[in-house]
Amino acid sequence: MDAGGSYMSSAPYVAPMEIVTVLAVLLVAVGIVGLVIPVLPGLLLTVLGVFVWALERNDSAGWTVWGICVAVAVIGWVLQYAIPGRRLKAAGVPTRTLVGGAILGVIGFFVIPVVGLFVGFVLGIFLMERLRLDTADAWAQTKVALKGVLMSIGIELCAALVVATTFVVGLLATR
Fold this sequence. Notes:
Layout: H1 16-36, H2 42-57, H3 60-91, H4 95-111, H5 116-132, H6 135-173
Helix pairs in contact: 1-2, 1-6, 2-3, 2-6, 3-6, 4-5, 5-6
């Protein structure tokens, strides 16, 4: 009890802004991890983390940082599909093959925890290509499709890292 007769708390006071900032940082970090281990919508989570921070700040600096992050994310999303898609088309990988790989990837995700998405996607690509090509050519096309998918993940990861960096710069500049 203090001199005024009230009980003093030994727990430090944490301002609501600090809690929101920690939540935003966690969302950004989980988003990046979700890109390295593709289970979560990583880039979306990173942008959402910055949005939570900007919403709490509710000032021009916060909204400017969020706007830049949204622009980076949109560019990343466009490039993520445009660049690998063009390469896959140039290599002769048909759209139906990618759809087959995606379907088996989703099934694999639920059948085999953690790695099922990858296993299912590769198997789906190979089986779809095997329907139209011999085994060696089907495997060659499967490798082309895998390189395209890895490129797509890399582009999204780069965009998420730029979003995270922009967020950190904004966070430090507004402290």
